[in-house]
Amino acid sequence: xxxxxxxxxxxxxxxxxxxxxxxxxxxxxxxxxxxxxxxxxxxxxxxxxxxxxxxxxxxxxxxxxxxxxxxxxxxxxxxxxxxxxxxxxxxxxxxxxxxxxxxxxxxxxxxxxxxxxxxxxxxxxxxxxxxxxxxxxxxxxxxxxxxxxxxxxxxxxxxxxxxxxxxxxxxxxxxxxxxxxxxxxxxxxxxxxxxxxxxxxxxxxxxxxxxxxxxxxxxxxxxxx
Length: 225
Prior knowledge:
InterPro entries: InsA_HTH_dom (IPR024431), Transposase_27 (IPR005063), Transposase_27_IS1 (IPR051354). The chain has seven helices and eight strands. By secondary structure, the chain is of the alpha/beta class.
């Protein structure tokens, strides 16, 4: 028989067909869905197994909380939190880029592990919607810049506005490229927003990323969720 206690659990397809399925080592009752085969526990002792934990991680990450602060608030381990952040980021799909749009491209400097290890965030902003359509993290080289620019070229960008960094002149077609006053206003404002919201990007701070993987995952969550 279907237990009334399990009606709050919902599996794939909104089907509520949970039946008893033994007990855990700690004595908690387990349930299994007769349709999809997924199992549930009525009361989880470890908070990381709660259904809304990923959404809480996303919210706190976008608010700029650090790893230890987030783990302390959610009452889970930092190791589990790092794994969840990477897992969430892997399941994020890049936004679909429309053809014939106008973009702004800029770079943002930060560091990984220590202040001598400089790293650059290069990203493209769609001028009208203010949506981040592509980003890349790496050294300030043509290879790092080109990863973002190639995406825009494939979308047949109408115009690409950049600052006066000379590398752009060799990577972007002259007809498509534009350097003019106020051309990158939106993305420069986005830089300020990023530094305000994410402590790991602030200029003078003791908060910084220790891992390039986690840094990239946090940016994916911030930009595309």
